[in-house]
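[job 0417] fold request received: 4-coumarate--CoA ligase
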Amino acid sequence: MAYVSRMAAIDGRSGYCNSNSTFYSKRKPAPLPANETLDVTTFISARAHHGTIAYIDASTGRRLTFSDVWRAVESVTSSLADYGLRKGDVVLLLSPNSIFFPIVCLSVMSLGAIITTTNPLNTNREINKQIANSKPVLAFTISELLPKLADSNLPIVLIGSGTGKGKIVSTLEEMMKKEPNQNRVKERVTQDDTATLLYSSGTTGESKGVISSHRNLIAMVQTVLGRFQLEDNQQTFLCTVPMFHIYGLVAFATGLIASGATVVVLSKFDIHEMLSAIGTYKVSYLPLVPPILVALVNNADQIRKKYDFGNLKWVLCGGAPLSKELTEGFMEKYPGVTIMQGYGLTESTGIGASTDTLEESRRYGTAGKLSANMEAKIVDPDTGKALPVNRTGELWLKGPTVMKGYFSNPEATSSTLDSTGWLRTGDLCYIDEDGFIFVVDRLKELIKYKGYQVPPAELEALLLTHPDIDDCAVIPFPDKDVGQFPMAYVMRKSGSNLSEKGIMDFVSTQVAPYKRIRKVAFIGSIPKNPSGKILRKDLIQLATSKL
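[job 0417] inference complete; emitting structure tokens
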């Protein structure tokens, strides 16, 4: 009876329920398995699909069929079990994108062991810090990255060819050749067991290990499949984003293999290799971060003359909302290609909101509608009160993809997850009357000028309308008189002589006095994480290092 009453109180347009101040997803619910004894690898492999080629190496053209992949997973799983890997053990994967990346992840998780990934660009110090925190018992890496594990004393399985110093116990190739042991005793793995330990981007502070369960990943897979509806015809995705990051892991190392789609893998991002692969492999879906989308628009004439976009139908963009100018500019330059956007966090297994059609993407500036099975609240950061439609506050999310917590960090867990499972995203947002989420800014990144709150994203969006600015970032600069004031890091277009004063004057005529930019520095490129978020803490450190 209470459920019927709540449903009656939900607004059909916005999804907002007056009785509990909660927004409900308007997407078709994604079905979730009731069987508690289930790991994500088994769940994915059991799905019926009609695909033939699972992965293609963009550089070499090497292909893995779906039967190749699942045979390899069985063999590697058997090898790991024989080695002594058990449920709950942590395995470190230090590797660039590879057609073998998913095989390692799926094999580890099928045993109930936990996969933790790290950025190959990280320093030895950063990698050792993650090793000290996550305590892996085994590492997979390539020969070129062996020096980064030199101080760890970890047993290593080598991916690919090559040699080097380290405690190498086997190679992935040897493991893949092993005849699967059909008689091995399998440990009971439940949906609630931990599957991955990914480290959040740390845009505003120390990186933390995010604990995601098999249930989280299963719900993610179902959401991905429901969003793209790929079962009816063969589609090809180009993996341009790092698989060690939640974006890449969600889509390419786990989610899409359940659909029968083909994934073309770039080992490292190179825009010319990416553009060439679109035509060579008849790519239909292209995931991007906003800076690459900007490059495609700015250089569209040369790109269209040189590269084949005949099969490209969808561009998937995440990391930051897209402006009207960028969205329309792209669609004008690349007719027939639709932009889809997404919003998610490592803490929500990459799931949160999305635009799934051209019409939805034309709600400019939106992060999209709530993903299937998700609920949201907009909470006033000062009072803790849940707010209705078109009111700005912190976005809270709840659903089957929300993490279990932070690894060995109960304080951070309790400050991010409340006792009923609500995830505090740290993003200032509002949800409009049609259920679209708009991200105003990061809560922790607001600049406080004389008590006024200044959202950096607002000033960045304004700066990007200047014809001589390619990219920018706005940060808080400390000041004893006003607390903080906005400072801009600006990447000028080639050949531009735009001055600091010119930038400050441009902004001052278009914003309230407290929002004016009072300091400018020019920079060759804006530092960003793999999902396209500005690393403001790096710029703040740069700006304040001489104080």
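[job 0417] notes: Residues 447-544 form a domain with the GMP Synthetase; Chain A, domain 3 fold (CATH 3.30.300.30). The two ends are 63 Å apart (CA to CA).
[job 0417] exit 0
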